[in-house]
Amino acid sequence: MKDLPAFKIDRWVGNYKPICNIMLHGSCASELSLNQLKQLSPDPSMDPIDRELPLIYGSVLGSLKLRSRLAELHSTTAIKLTANNVVITPGSIMANYLVLTTLFSAGDHVICQFPTYAQLYELPRFMGVEVSLWKGSVDDSWTPSVEELENLVQPNTKAIIINNPSNPTGVVLPSRVIDETIAVAKKYDLTIFSDEVFRPLFHSQDLPPPPIVSTGFTSCVSTGSISKAHGLPGVRLGWVISPDIDIIRRIIIARDYTTISVSQLDDSVACFALDPSVLPVLMERNLAKCAASLRMLDDFVVQNAQRCSWVRPAGAGTALVKIVEKNGQPVDDAALCAELAQKYAISLVPGGHCFNDGEASELDGYIRIAIGDDDTLRAGLSVLGSYLNS
Question: What pairing do the DSSP bridges indicate for beta strands 366-370 and 349-350?
C-alpha cells in the first residue's frame, strides 16, 4: 500500500510552532474566547452553550437549527436552499475529505485551481485520480485563465475544484470568472466543488461573488466552517452544502463511516456565532482587524520595496509576500522561515516549500503571513523588517 505524501504545511507548522512565540503561520481571523464571543450578542441572556444541554449524541446530520441557518446564509431570493441541502461535519477538512472521496474514483480526472490547499489535489492523486492544475500567475494577480481551464478538460474529466477566497494567495474569483467557469462545467457536464472556508472574509470594495450553491447551477457542492472567517478554529465544525440532493445523499452515506454526530457543544457555539444578531458584529470585528493588518503590510512592502513585493489579497486570512536577495533572486523561503523560527521565534509559512506541485514553483521566495490578528502582525513585521535590514 502506498503512503500519502506528507502534508507539507502541517509538518512545517508542527516542527516550528513549538519553538516560536510570534505566531504568523495561521490563516484564521483573530480567535475569540467563549466570553468574547458571548459579549458580541446584544442580548446578555444569550449564551454560546446551553448549560442544561444533555451531553448525548447530537442530531445525526447536525442540528436542524444550524442546518437551516446555513441554508439561509447560502440562499438568495431566487435560489432557496433548506436544511436538507446541508450536512454538518467535524471541521471543513472532513467536509473536503467526504466530497473528494465520494465524488471521484481511480481513473477519473479533475481540474484543481492552483496554488491552493494541498488536500484538494493531493488526496485525489492518492486515490488514483488524475489531477491537472489550473494555475494562476502573479502577473494576473493569481486569477487563473478560463481559456486555460477549458484547455485542461479531458474526456474523463469529472469536476473543477476551486478555493474561493483562496489559500494562500488571497485571490477572489470574481462573479465573471465564476460565471465563465460554470459555462465550462455545463458544456462538458462537470461538477464544481468550491472550498469556501474563508467566506465571507472579503477585503475588497468590489461586490463579492455569490456562494457557488446559490448561482442556480445545480451540479455543484461547497464546503465551509466557522474556523477561518469567523475566528473559531477551536470549534471543530464544518459543513457540506449542495443543491443536488443526490450529492448530499452520497455524502451522508460516506459520513456514516466517519462520524456518528458532531459535538453538541460545537453545534451550539456555531449556532450562536451564526445567529443574525451576532454574525454581523463578529464579521465587522474580524474584517476590521484584517484591514488594519493589510494597511501595515502595505506600508511594510513600500518601506522594503527593494526586497519585497506582493499582490494585495482580496479575501481570506493570509497574504503572500515575495522576498528577494540583494541581487534580486528569490530567497530560499524554507531556509529563511526556518532561520526566523530558530533565531527569532517567529513562525511563518514558506510559500515555495509548502505550496508546490513537486516542480519549480512560482511561489519560490514567497512567505505566507497571517493577517487575522493585527497586534501579532505588528510584532512579526518588526522582527522581519530588522532581519531584512541587518
Answer: antiparallel
Residues 166 and 118: beta-carbon distance below 8 Å: no
Place of cell 468550491: 194
Domains of the chain are 8-34+280-380 (3.90.1150.10), 50-278 (3.40.640.10)
Please enumerate in sequence order all residues whose Cβ is within 8 A of that of 154, keeping only pairs 6 or more positions apart, or say none. 109, 130, 132
Count CB atoms within 10 A of the CB of residue 192: 22
Helices 333-344, 8-16: axis angle to 10 degrees equals: 20
pLDDT at 2 over 80: no
Distance between CA atoms of 91 and 95, rounded to whole angstroms? 7
Residue range 179-196, pLDDT digits in tens: 999 999 999 999 999 999
Q: How confident is the model at residue 329 (pLDDT cuts 50, 70, 90)?
A: very high
Angle at 10 between CA 130 and CA 337, to 5 degrees: 115
> E-assigned strands of 308-383?
308-310, 318-323, 346-347, 349-350, 366-370
Residue tagged 523588517 (cell numbers) = 385
Q: How far apart (Å, rounded) are the C-alpha atoms in residues 227 and 198? A: 9
Alpha carbon distance 305, 328 (integer Å): 11
104-150 pLDDT, tens digit per residue, is 999 999 999 999 999 999 999 999 999 999 999 999 999 999 999 99
Read off φ and ψ for residue 208, nearest 5 degrees: -70, 155
Three-class secondary structure of residue 303 per DSSP: helix
Q: Is 277 helix (H, G, I), strand (E, B) or coil?
A: coil
Locate 210 and state its grid cell: 455569490
H-type helices in the chain, by residue range? Answer: 8-16, 34-38, 64-73, 92-103, 119-126, 146-152, 175-188, 245-255, 264-273, 279-303, 333-344, 351-354, 374-388
How do 238-241 and 308-310 pair as beta strands?
Answer: unpaired
Rounded CA-CA distance 277/285 in Å is 14
For residues 13 and 369, is the Cβ–Cβ distance under 8 A?
no
pLDDT tens-digit readout, 200-214: 999 998 899 999 999
